[in-house]
Specification:
With 255 residues, this protein is of the alpha/beta class. The chain is 25% helix and 17% strand. It contains 8 helices and 8 strands.
Amino acid sequence: MQRCIELGKNGLGSTYPNPMVGSVIVHNEKIIGEGFTSPCGGPHAEVNAINSVNDKSLLKKATLYVTLEPCSHFGKTPPCADFIVANKIPRVVVGVKDPHEKVAGMGIQKLRDAGCEVEVGVLEEECREHHKRFLTFHEKKRPYIILKWAESSDGFLAPDKSEREANPEPYWITNKKSRQLVHQWRSEEHAILVGTNTVLEDNPKLNVRDWAGNSPIRIVVDRDLRIPSNNNIYDGSVSTLVLTAKKNFQMQKKN
């Protein structure tokens, strides 16, 4: 199961809205197949793991490990539970149940009804931590949120604005490594949100530059639409949402 979690991390930032599941197939204490969730619309982890097995005859005596309960419904792909049953895998070990209303134990029940031995809750806390984004959305009905800021040891975010008038550019408290980490985080998440003052002070691009990966959707809270149209957030390079209290206005820029 630990190996399943390692594999699942390969999907971080590319699988949403699907969870980043990892799966391993074991025969006689030896791993014979591995897989993780493809980008949305592609095969899920269990399918990729089964398809990676060279000798399919071994599946009839194998155990499939997976971080999250196999799905039981048709979406962009057929149910993984059906594929497991079709390949006659006799035993399935699940890290954590799927709270999605279209699964919610039905994948496990489908496997058991087909004669599979199913064990649930192996490394459950570790699997919950791994799937925290997906579980937060479905259990708490809100996004998983990372609150990020840089702060000096005596509690400051930046010098006083009066000290910055000669050089109004962003004042870097952090170093290159920590700034690269921030770009890695951006590549792993679906969206990034900032307020009006951050945009007015720093004119950020909020995209991924120091890391490989997709840029998140930019979300800006601009209640009174004070941000100029020539700001970087309106450059059209990344999908952008502006939340405002103004009514009956037209944005000249796309997104």
